[in-house]
Amino acid sequence: MIYIKKGRGPAAYFYIIKQNDMKKLLQAEEIALTAVSIYLLSKFNLGLSVWVWIPLFLAPDLSMLGYLVNTRVGAWCYNIFHHRGVAVAVAGAGYLAGVPVLLTAGLLLLAHSSFDRMLGYGLKYNDDFQHTHLGKIGKAALHEARAL
């Protein structure tokens, strides 16, 4: 923990979170979002068995097939299915329109994208699959860490 004094008096101290602490804080936030999303999915489950939900939960990762075309198309496809704004919009539209399948699809996208971010996988840049908004992943991350 680092304290920087600005101004006078005890209220003038500001707490600066270290980078590692910030990653843990963000990871805890993603764990909470994943848990809430899965809880809501259990309430709006469309009467489907738990065994059906396991492959459905992983289904957004099929968007990685866009990388078979090129990295630009792959990143675009991946980001559409892993963007929380899209997930919330789909769930909201389903709720407002009274369409349970749409609501559930949005919740599923939200649960999946939060789960991925909890594991450190973020939205993709179009230059490389391993370049995400959360940093490098895979071998690229190991190479970066060794360089430090």
Describe it for me?
It is a single chain. This protein has 148 residues and is mainly alpha-helical. The protein has one domain. The chain has 6 helices and 4 strands; from the N terminus they run ββαααααββα. A two-stranded antiparallel ribbon has the order 1-2. A two-stranded antiparallel ribbon has the order 3-4. Strand 3 and strand 4 (135-136) form a beta hairpin. The radius of gyration is 19 Å and the shape is globular. The mean pLDDT is 84.
Shape: globular
What is the number of domains?
1
What is the helix content? Answer: 55-70%
Taking all Cα atoms into account, the compactness measure Rg is 19 Å
Provide the residue-averaged pLDDT: 84
Count of distinct strands: 4
Indicate the proportion of strand residues: 5-15%
Biggest sheet descriptor: 2 strands, antiparallel
Q: Structural class from helices and strands?
A: mainly alpha
Instruction: Report the total helices.
Output: 6
What is the H/E string? EEHHHHHEEH
Going across the biggest sheet, name each strand in turn: 1-2
Segments where pLDDT lies below 50 for 5+ residues? none
Distance between the termini: 21 Å
